[in-house]
Amino acid sequence: MPGVVFQSVVVGGGYGTGREIAEFFLPHGPVGGLLGMIAAMICWGVVLAIAFEFGRIAKAYDYRNFFRALLGPFWRTFEAIYLLLALVVLAVLGSAAGEIVNDTLNLPPILGTLVLLGAVGLLTFYGSDLLAPVLSIWSALLYVLYAVFLVLVFQAFGGEILAALETGVIKNGWAADGVRYASYNFVAFAAVLFATRYIETRAQALTAGTLAGIIGVIPAVFVFLAMLAGYPGIENEPVPVSWLLAQMNVLWFAAIFQIILFGTFVETGAGITHSINERVAGVFEDRGAVFPNWARFALSIGALAIAVFLALRIGIIDLIASGYGALSYAFIAVMVTPLLTLGVWRIVKTPGSASNSKHKGTDYEH
Q1: Which of 19, 43, 250, 329 could cross-link 182 (Cys pair, CB 3.0–4.6 Å)?
Q2: How many Å apart are CA 22 and CA 25, to the nearest integer?
Q3: How remote is the C-alpha of 125 from its chain's centroid?
Q4: Domain ranges of the chain
Q5: 79 vs 65: CA distance, rounded Å
Q6: CATH 3.40.50.300 holds for 2-349
């Protein structure tokens, strides 16, 4: 469950449009890009395995309690960076949704952005009970979609893809960009925490984290290989996946793909805004109150409205190149490094079957 939820949330901001792959992997060449993806997979698997086990022993199922347990009074540093990156990801989704509606229906991009906003708000209105099964089902659907996509692209441009791979190009920096890519995508981790409540043992936590890294990267590899059909040059396209669909001229599949891709933006946006809702709901719970559904909807719409403004003002290419790049280093500093040091130390000190902490994780103030 955590693995498929992670993949579902990552896809929209991680590789759904192909723009992110063009930014982080294609510059290192066909083989260098694949090596970068392996680096990203290892980074995801290791960090998520540690994070799931840390969350289990701390009984922390939202990012507020998780990072209070990990960072103590400095946990708000994570929250500030997380909320900023969440807005950037939501802005990327809004911009991409507008591009798809404009490319496929020749309608104003703002319409696609507004439809995305409403769909995310509706999905988060119903909370975890609806979100978990929707993300899981959509994850399976995405696997089928990207597999068929790769097959169709290979049928049309198999020679170009093989020729690109045969060049064997490996440019410097693939490992660093793989880690950077993995790090900014840890924004999805906060959205996965609600699905880790079912983990009961250390073995389950470590297995779930490792599987999440593998499950998350496989569709990205499909997209990367497909994009080699237009290499070099495709990296300059705002939405490379849409460009590939246009080149194939398979209208029925293009229509299905664009619909499902739009759905991935909805699920990624819903996963991120749900994590913010869960953080606020934790404060309500501490005070003996219930966070109402109408407030979940309003908070989601408010976050997305700010993101829409960013999307319209900046654009998808600059958002990914500037926003993702800079904030990936911040995530390494406030999440990856503490987990690999303080988190591992806490895990080593705690017996594998123990879960000693109370639900809140710490006694620090809100």
Answers
A1: 43
A2: 6
A3: 20
A4: 2-349
A5: 11
A6: no
Length of the chain in terms of residues written: 366
Q: What is the 3-state secondary structure (H, E, C) of the chain?
A: CHHHHHHHHHHHHHCCCCHHHHHHCHHHHHHHHHHHHHHHHHHHHHHHHHHHHHHHHHCCCCHHHHHHHHHHHHHHHHHHHHHHHHHHHHHHHHHHHHHHHHHHHCCCHHHHHHHHHHHHHHHHHCCHHHHHHHHHHHHHHHHHHHHHHHHHHHHHHHHHHHHHHHCCCCCCCHHHHHHHHHHHCCHHHHHHHHHHCCCCCHHHHHHHHHHHHHHHHHHHHHHHHHHHHHCCCHHHCCCHHHHHHHHHCCHHHHHHHHHHHHHHHHHHHHHHHHHHHHHHHHHHHHCCCCCCHHHHHHHHHHHHHHHHHHHHHHCHHHHHHHHHHHHHHHHHHHHHHHHHHHHHHHHHHCCCCCCCCCCCCCCCCC
249-307 confidence digits (pLDDT tens): 888 888 888 888 788 777 778 777 877 777 787 778 778 887 777 777 777 777 777 77
pTM metric for this prediction: 0.77
